[in-house]
Write a structure and sequence with these properties.
6-stranded parallel beta sheet, alpha/beta, 7-stranded parallel beta sheet
Amino acid sequence: MMTKVVYVTFFDQLTDKDIIMPFLAKTTKVIGFSSRVIIKYKYSSHKEAYVYEIKEEENLSYPYIDEIVDDFPLLEDKKEDIEKTADYYFCSVYKILERLLPFPKKEEEYRKVFYVPCSPTPLNKINKREYELLELIRREKKIPKDDFSKSATINSLLEKKYIKEIYDDEKAPSFSSFYASDNDNEKLVQEILDSEEKNILVETDNNLKEFRFAIDIAKETLKRNKSILIISPNISLANPFIEFLNMNFKDNLVILSSNKGKERIAALKRINNESNIVIYGDKYAVFAPIKDLGLILVFQEENYLYKDEKLFLNYKDIALKSNYKTVLFSKCPKLMTKAKQLKGYLKGYSFKAQNLVQYKLIQKEDDVIPAELLYRISECLKNKEQVLIFHNSRGTSPFYKCDKCSKFAICPSCGNTLTYYEDDNRLSCLSCGYHIEASEYYCSSCGGKEFSKSGIGTMGIQKYLEEKFKNAKISRLDADSYKDKDYHMDLSAFATGDNDIIVGTKELKENYLLPKVKLIIVMDIDWIFKSSSYNIEENYYEILNALLNSARLDTSAYIITSDPTFLPLNIIAQQDYQKFYEYTLNKRRMIMAPPYYYLIALRLFARDKNFLLNVSDKVYSFFEGKFKGRKVFLIGPYNVKFFKKQRGYKSLIMIKYRKREDIEDVIKAFLNMRLPKGIGLEIDVDPEGE
């Protein structure tokens, strides 16, 4: 007698492998590829798994599935796409399904937390630092908790009951006044939808222009009785584009976000049941089961967030390889994308204006900010205009220098420099998380106890500006000042006028609209030209370009530099993409970097450094032997560093190749080998930079 056997895929912690095993199912539910199920396996009575396939076999004594979570398989139609993706990126189908369809977990409600002074005031003793912080909170009446890093001073005030925490639910600021329809897009919209070209690159220089074009192309797609998928690297509720979409497609709009599991599953069910809709989603939405899909539109093609930080899938490239017409919007296309367009793999359109805003280079002075720029800041404040200051370093000072031997304070765990934080007098490593009270640190080279702060970080710049402009409202946005769940809300609050000046790191570019910013100042990016990363210049060109395109058209922009005559910096400052493209392409040709060669990064992890080095050498020798006679180049192993995420050391082997067939069989053979116990492995196909 033939019986339906359900093969499920899951992760086995004991073997550190993904496994496919047969089970039987008693259910009235419809099951198929991607159905979420609960099984018993070895010592686990509650194992999360996904249905991979169903076969008819003779009646065998397989165990039964304990629970079927879904009423029907949500991604059954996407099996072929997911299998192809898993094969290209050398990862498992299980890991992709785990990313796309997480199991329901208890979700904590997130509300913004503020510090407020307590009343009546207690009589406990407080020190000078605590008193100054308490007075600041009293003046402001309430201060967001996210404005502070982990602070012993704050904790002390909480314990002594001078301040307390309160919740305050905030609504996303409104951007509706900045939206207006644009009738100039009609001809191009028709041309793109009627074109026989599958993949298209549209270059723009204005975020509002992108929004309006996306709205127009979505309206025309719906008129043709098709659905449209719009993918963005950021779909925070504070994103102004969501407001614009709601204004135009309220009843036909589906928001597909990975932030909340329950809402994502509900959105996927709606997509399965409805047609002629607009889906606005994050990068994972590329696998959404849209039955009548007419077009995929990808915002901010140049954004690094399209690369998955765990599985290393590039969802933008997955969209391009899909069976659907895909339109990429970009203000400064990735060099790989531009090279493909110039070779004819993508059809290109350009909306870029001729008179682009450029950055002016200004000589670095002894003061933190040159006198000319301080004057311009004061003029902006007088005219009630906003100022944005970008700086790459966090903390008060990125370096802590020994007065005796002039050596910088070094992290004992990973060897990187320690950053000084004045608010709680500590040194922290921004790579591995090590921290120590500054008063307890001794120089590792000479044993010295006296140190001087060197350089300045975002926290130091904020304090400097507060002393210079005492009446200005100054905010900071970096990894020390926000939580992932709400930093877009804070940035959008600045965009609508809550503060006068904002100081921050790369997170500043994550808002599409900063319409009140009149002055942009970029500090200390000279170091990027000394970096070994092949694409660091491209990344910073994109950041600076994004800042300009978020701000108003008459914005003034400056880069503070120690050498205003340096040619590569001048090319970036001019924001002339064609010049930058030619300069960078010539550089990459010499070092055999993309687009001339493809890359695969093999990262090995272990807690013991010497053990890792030994295994890395053996892995290198394995690939060296297998690749002999093929046009494949190996680099490494190198970059042996301590990393907080793995609580151990990492080494890197880079593979450069021209043809996929030269490396595919060797890597698959390597993956079938058993690595020594205690060794972790990551394979990153087409890494964004190393």
